[in-house]
Specification:
This protein is an alpha/beta fold. The chain is built from eight helices and nine strands. The strands form two sheets. A seven-stranded mixed beta sheet has the order 3-2-1-4-7-5-8, with helices on both faces.
């Protein structure tokens, strides 16, 4: 497998961020490709990215017909990339600058030593910057404690959306087993990585509250993750009997 990296960015109404993010990533990791996965954004994000790809050879766009969640968007992107069989590392990140492109090289380097490198807010040296509402902080911290208890994952930031996968991890994971969405998807991908005996390491990052656009998190996503994690563990426990 080649050592080339690709950065996957799912988008929905991110017209104010996408081109600046693409150009910043290209400047920091000039050898990496970028795949924007757009869920038919009403604000034209997909069209903006498509137009930009004409003058940016490292940029491509995967257009999806509707918005049906983070998990399906990533899975479609992963399957698309695996068919190409040209990347050694796959980075996933948000489009809103909550994840700093400057951390991408550190994640790639870490994934060369372990199998999945997690950009972590909740390991030593990591932090959340900007103004987070108290309720959101509590939900995030409780969610990670809950995820560790249910899954047995021994990491601080189970819900992290900033990761780098060694391609061999994505080749081994059965995406048909992935049924969670939103933050639950992030947890289940780590759970499946561990279930397949891959190593997971945490790299401290500063998570920045988005400056532009609207957060996609709502109570539905949180509730789905809470219930679905129990269903996921129950499925595996009973399947072993």
């Amino acid at each position: 497998m080649k050592n080339r990296a690709v950065v996957v960015i799912p988008t929905y109404n991110e017209k104010d961020n996408i081109l600046r993010l693409v150009d910043e990533i290209s400047g920091i990791v000039p050898g990496a490709d970028i795949l924007v996965v757009d869920d038919n954004s009403p604000d034209g994000t997909g069209d903006i990215a498509e137009s930009a790809s004409k003058t940016r050879p490292n940029l491509s766009v995967l257009h999806r017909c509707r918005k049906d969640g983070l998990g399906p968007a990533y899975i479609e992107a992963f399957r698309h990339l695996l068919k190409k069989n040209k990347y050694g590392y796959v980075v996933q990140m948000d489009a809103d600058f909550s994840h700093s492109p400057k951390d991408i090289p550190r994640l790639i380097d870490a994934a060369a030593d372990c199998d999945v490198a997690v950009g972590s807010r909740y390991t030593k040296g990591g932090a959340v910057t900007g103004k987070w509402h108290v309720a959101r902080k509590c939900i995030s911290q409780f969610g990670n404690v809950y995820a560790r208890l249910v899954t047995g994952l021994g990491i601080g930031d189970c819900t992290a959306g900033f990761k780098c996968y060694n391609a061999r991890v994505l080749e081994k994971i059965d995406f048909n087993r992935i049924f969670l969405n939103g933050y639950g998807f992030q947890i289940q991908m780590l759970y499946e990585s561990k279930r397949n005996d891959f190593r997971i390491c945490e790299i401290p990052i500063f998570f920045n509250e988005r400056a532009k656009g609207k957060s996609k998190m709502d109570i539905t996503i949180v509730w789905e993750a809470f219930i679905s994690l129990l269903l996921m563990r129950a499925r595996d426990l009973f399947s072993k009997k």
